[in-house]
Write a structure and sequence with these properties.
Layout (H helix, E strand, L loop, with lengths): L13 H32 L10 H7 L5 H16 L2 H7 L5 H8 L7 H7 L5 H11 L80 E6 L2 E5 L4 H13 L9 H21 L22 H11 L19 E5 L15 E5 H12 L1 H19 L12 H8 L22
Antiparallel strand pairs: 1-2, 3-4
Helix pairs in contact: 1-3, 1-4, 2-3, 3-5, 5-7, 11-12
Organism: Anaeromyxobacter paludicola
Protein name: HNH endonuclease
Length: about 425
């Protein structure tokens, strides 16, 4: 048994304390490099699937109990180290830290990785940001001037409470700027951007602008959350219209309730489309399914989704069930579809994409699956590279049927007439 750790360092001298700290930091760097190397190999073998995790991030958070940010940094460093193994040695001896690797990852190439890694040695996060800004300049951000809300008045704890002033009834919050509320401004949709001269030089690499900030969904109190995101003008107009249409039912015009009602309708529609959920299900048809068809009857979809709780059913050896509810697929668990398996509730279950692929590899072999994936990818690339249809020639079955249908009497079809009015993919 290992001896218990002692955290009482009061007996150490100043010199011994500093020497011990230096040794611990050196060991921590070496262990971090080993952890990153192990994560890279686990990620390459996709072993997280055996532990009921749909992704490497879910494995690091759910099984290794790392924080989200710590998992992100180590996974990013692991995937970078697989491309450039020198990163592991530089992490181990302290020439690079995890934040540096994450910053450099998107700029490293086969041609520049040696010089760029050497330039980042022993630099802080801010220094590396300046280094990347110098070598990979980006456009200037648009200028903005906004008036912040007035700070709330502070009252001393001992001040006597005052009678609440008379205020007007609460009005519906608006998404539009109003003269009486100068603190609510909307940035211009297409601001002019000035490109620095260095970015226009022929030798300067073209770098895509940074991604927008991620939406915020953070808890505020029990059963209360803060949602912050950027929406388009079209979405803003839809919110305003929905709130106006709900004026009689929601006099206060609470936007949170508008969003909640909209999401309720969206989730109901998506469940109906994916799992055939409906309030008044029809009786199942007695006609047998067509042999070789992947069609799953609606009553079977409903039964499987209800039985599995709209969650992946993969269970690891330790009893842990995969928590994934995203990208679920119907999996033929007893008899594979390729071997004649039928689309019945006894033969189907819900699996996430990762564990559906794991079951397929276990059934047919990893090499067979890799070959089929490569063939499908090649077919998609050939389809993208196919010659585009000539102008005026219908390319989809819906458009061909529409072109073949004779026009109604008294109407003439012109080139500007749209060939399809479908609300979605044809």
């Amino acid at each position: 048994m290992n001896a218990p750790l002692s955290f009482d360092l009061t007996a150490l001298s100043d010199r011994a304390l500093l020497e011990a700290l230096t040794s611990l930091v050196r060991r921590e760097r070496e262990v971090t490099a080993e952890v990153v190397a192990h994560l890279a190999e686990v990620d390459a073998r996709r072993l997280y699937r055996d532990h009921a995790c749909p992704s490497m991030h879910a494995y690091c958070v759910g099984v290794l109990h790392l924080a989200d940010e710590a998992a992100y940094k180590r996974i990013n460093a692991a995937r970078t180290a697989r491309r450039f193994p020198a990163v592991l040695e530089m992490l181990a001896d302290g020439r690079l830290h995890l934040s540096a690797v994450c910053l450099l990852a998107q700029h490293l190439t086969e041609e520049n990785h040696g010089a760029l890694l050497d330039a980042a040695v022993h630099r802080s996060k801010r220094d590396i940001e300046e280094l990347l800004a110098e070598r990979f300049p980006r456009p200037d951000v648009p200028a903005a001037l906004r008036k912040l809300p007035s700070p709330l008045p502070r009252f001393a704890p001992s001040a006597p409470p005052e009678a609440p002033p008379l205020v007007a009834p609460p009005q519906a919050p608006s998404l539009l700027p109003r003269p009486e509320a100068p603190s609510l401004l909307i940035a211009p949709e297409a601001p002019s951007r000035r490109i620095p001269p260095a970015a226009l030089a022929p030798s300067a690499p073209v770098v895509a602008p940074p991604p927008p900030p991620r939406p915020v969904l953070a808890p505020l109190a029990p059963e209360r959350y803060r949602l912050q995101l950027t929406i388009s003008r079209q979405t803003r107009d839809r919110l305003e219209e929905a709130r106006d249409l709900l004026g009689h039912q929601m006099p206060a015009g609470d936007l949170a309730e508008v969003v909640d009602r909209a999401l309720e309708l969206l989730v109901r529609e998506l469940r109906k489309r994916k799992f055939a959920e409906t309030r008044t299900p029809r009786a199942p048809r007695s006609a047998p399914a067509t042999e070789g068809s992947r069609h799953i009857p609606h009553h079977v979809r409903r039964e499987v989704a209800l039985r599995d709780g709209n969650q992946c059913t993969f269970v690891a050896e330790d009893g842990r069930r995969c928590p994934a509810r995203r990208r679920l697929e119907f999996h033929h668990q007893r008899v594979a579809f390729a071997k004649g398996g039928e689309g019945s509730a006894d033969n189907l279950c819900l699996r996430c994409t990762a564990h559906h692929g794991l079951a397929t590899e276990q059934e047919f072999g990893r090499e067979h699956v890799a070959r089929r994936v490569a063939e499908a990818r090649l077919a998609r690339e050939r389809l993208r590279g196919a010659k585009a249809p000539s102008p005026g020639v219908a390319s989809t079955p819906r458009e061909r049927r529409r072109e073949a249908k004779p026009p109604s009497p008294g109407t003439a079809r012109t080139a500007s007439t749209p060939s399809s009015f479908a609300f979605g993919p044809t």
